[in-house]
UniProtKB/TrEMBL annotation:
PANTHER family: F-BOX ONLY PROTEIN 48 (PTHR12874:SF9), F-BOX ONLY PROTEIN 48-RELATED (PTHR12874). Pfam families: F-box-like. The keyword DNA-binding does not apply. This is F-box only protein 48. One of its GO terms (cellular component) is SCF ubiquitin ligase complex. SMART domains: FBOX. Keywords: Ubl conjugation pathway. The keyword Membrane does not apply. GO terms for biological process: protein ubiquitination; SCF-dependent proteasomal ubiquitin-dependent protein catabolic process. Residues 30-77 form the F-box domain. It comes from Xyrichtys novacula. It comes from the Eukaryota.
């Protein structure tokens, strides 16, 4: 096959048409949150996990506002975390804390409790060994569980 100096493809010669060149027009990108009702945006954001919600809230001011202000989103996240103690959640709700604050606070608490129950602090000899570790106040019932776990070891 020889090179066609006109630049016309054999396919277009058969069809009898030359390719139409469309000018490249920049289509404006739209933020879906700007076009949907807030309730729909919240439903979409509700499909994200807590880490992804935090990342999404940094996308733009509108996303941040919707995510931060949605008690529904944070309540759902809080209830999905299986390690959170329900009595702690109930107490925090009575104290008027937001669902997001409850999620962060109780997730931290559950991690500390888990580490204690696994024995990560069983052989601590001084406070210096705990430097840099996240600690949080624990209630009497949790301390009871931890002490029982230590006795069982």
């Amino acid at each position: 096959m020889q090179h066609d100096p006109t630049g016309t493809s054999p396919v277009f010669l058969i069809c009898g048409k030359r390719p139409a060149m469309k000018p490249a027009v920049a289509m404006p990108t739209q933020n879906f949150v700007e076009t949907l009702p807030t309730e729909m945006s919240v439903k979409i954001f509700g499909e994200l996990d807590a880490g992804s919600l935090c990342s999404a809230s940094q996308t733009c001011k509108l996303w941040h506002h919707i995510i931060e202000e949605s008690e529904q989103l944070w309540r759902s996240q809080c209830l999905q975390v299986g390690t959170i103690c329900q009595r702690e959640v109930d107490r925090d709700r009575r104290d008027g804390l937001s669902w997001k604050v409850i999620l962060v606070r109780n997730y931290t608490l559950s991690c500390v409790k888990r580490d204690w129950l696994r024995g990560q602090y069983s052989h601590v000899r001084s406070a210096d060994e705990l430097m840099g570790r996240t600690m949080t106040p624990l209630d009497a019932e949790t301390w009871g569980e931890i002490l029982q776990a230590e006795l069982d070891r």
